[in-house]
Amino acid sequence: MAPSFFRQVSRRRKQAPAAVQAPGALTTKAVRRDKRSRGVALIIAIVSIALLTVVATEFAYNSRVDLQLAANQRDEVRAYYMARSGLALGRLLMRFQKQVDQTPIPNPMAMLGQLGAMMGGGQAPGAAGQAFQPQSLNIQLWKLARVDCHMLKGLVKSEGAQVEDDSGGGTRSRLENDPVDVDPNFQMEDGDGAGGAAAQMASQMQRRSFGGFEGCFLATITDEEEKLNVMRLNTGGAEAQATAARMLDMLGDKRFEFLWQQDDANKVRSTPEETLIALKDWADEDPSQSALNRQDPTNPFAVGFADEGSPYSRYEPRYEVKNGRFDSLDELYRVHGVNDRFMAAFRDRLTVYPDINSKPNINTDDPIMLGLAIMSAADPNRPDPRLTDPVFLNELISRIRAARMFSFFGMSVQDFLGVVEQAGIAVNPLIKGNVAQNRYLGDKSKTFTIKSVGEAGSVQKTLTAVIRLDDGLGKLVYYREE
Fold first, then answer.
1. Where do the record's region annotations for Disordered lie (predicted)?
2. pLDDT (tens digit, 9 = 90+) per residue, 112-152?
């Protein structure tokens, strides 16, 4: 029995697990398995933290982007309505300008003459001075006033409630940051104390002032009738002859010779005469190309035999002549001979918005346009060679500006002709004989461009409108948002 018992015990020990065989000791394989398990857990933890960091960072970034987009949209709306405010204020100013233009000027000589006639002195001696006296004011109010947000804030006042002034006696308007006193015992009719306090606070809070807006705007006004009206080339009379002559004088100026010495983007080169004819043909109604005749005193354009669309057949893509009125000044880009260099030089001196019968205003500040006005006032039958001398022309322009500064009622066409005559230049008899009804020069305008720039935060909005004065705030001729 004993040997058999010992053999069974020995067999059981061999079949027992290693833990039983060696308590408290681990095999090399178990140690390696435990270390590998701890490394995987660490990697999982690091990857989880990295993913959470990326998600949190992306969420924070998207939140900031959304907030900035919302702020930009808010500022864009503010900037747009700031620009609208500048546009409306500019139109209101032009309404006042029309009233100033219609304000009559009393003639002191005529009044003295009437007084002498009433006293038995015979015929009124002021009749001679009647012809030289301007009939209405020529003050350009839009040049004297700065249309911006500060002007609007100065026109309005706070609508806040009156509170006691802590610094002394009297009252003052409640400011936006002033504390509001609330009676804790105030009760509404339904007994709701909290709602009553809120209603009391709402009733005592200051209403926001009309001038307390955020952002700013600046509106600039330019006179479109101080420029050369391209549409006057199609009047078919003396106006077309005068406009064509002045436009050729401007395009052919020595300072702009380089414009005609290079090809444009379509490998096409033109001349001032060709560009002038193309401008005329773009807006006329016939399909034939016009011919230029400078010697014709009534109409410098004659009907030719060529196709007026032939220059545009060389462009890619090809297009046809409009044969209609220009819709905007940017439409000049479609005319043969007009490119970026042309518009950079003459954009501020050409216009298409005024009426076809409007006359160039002599109250311009542009020296080139003043020089063209002087040439229009000169007698074409007795040309003065001094008008081609830039030194003489600049001196005459300085005299005109000095006379304008000392003219209390503003410079009229008669005053302009007087300065030209004092320089020894013969004046066109068609203008001098009928200053009020002449078809060459004017001293008042009806078409203006208002460019209003609104700004709020980092956003700017630009609105451009061309208005023609009427009995209201002006007829809208052109409108553009940028």
1. 160-183, 286-307
2. 556 556 665 544 444 444 444 567 778 888 888 889 888 77
Nearest alpha-carbon partner for 133 in 415, 357, 467: 415
Q: What is the C-alpha R_g of the chain?
A: 42
Give this prediction's pTM: 0.74
**Residue 229 CB neighbours (<10 A):** 24
Each residue of 262-314: pLDDT tens digit? 887 778 888 999 999 999 999 988 888 888 887 777 778 888 888 888 888 88
